[in-house]
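Final paragraph of the annual report: two paired records, presented back to back.
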Amino acid sequence: MRAVLTRVLSASVTIDGTCVAQIGKGFLVLLGVHVDDSEAQAVKIADKICGLRIFEDENGKMNISPADAGAELLIVSQFTLYADCSSRRPGFTAAARPEVSEPLYERVVAECRARGFQVETGRFGADMKVGSVNDGPVTIVLDV
């Protein structure tokens, strides 16, 4: 499983001109599911997302967890994170099919909510417009 996590001041998802999800300070998480992923990877990546200390403390050091920072999460499914770009036209055979990836995506969302986070989501499989005001910018790639 792969997540591209960006620390944001705000982020949103718009579908067909309607804002369907919006957060303030927190993490915008683009989440890709690999063909070999299982629930174990979903739990592990949720744990990493919820525990990553990348908010600044009083000394300007990245030392504050998202829970302590009062962060919100916006998690968006993105199969293109597993693009094979060995040719000019990307292939996506490493990305899990929707019947596998959607339940694992939902598991990550549920795990983050179970840890007490306000979690907003995109709509699985929809054509989404994702907006964000990046903070820092701080962007981290997580692979589990």
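The closing record of the year follows.
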Amino acid sequence: MKKEDYMDNSFDEIYLEDCPCCGGVGCIEEEGGWCVYVQCLDCGAHTSYVPFESDGERLDAAGRAADNWNMRKVIAPGPGE
């Protein structure tokens, strides 16, 4: 798979509820090519990291992170974070 194909394999089709902490918008983030998580763009609440080992597992990991987010399984930022 070429890098351009990898980048086109976006997460746009994955549904995310509003943030359970503040009602803000959630965004699926990728960390260093080894894991994904969902993070609120407003307050910074986020899910745990969901690891993947190959390009084929990447979209599945994003779906699992979205499931965690939509079930309200998040880590809320504390004061000063």
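The first strand starts at residue 26 and ends at 31. This concludes the annual technical report; the extension proposal builds directly on these records.
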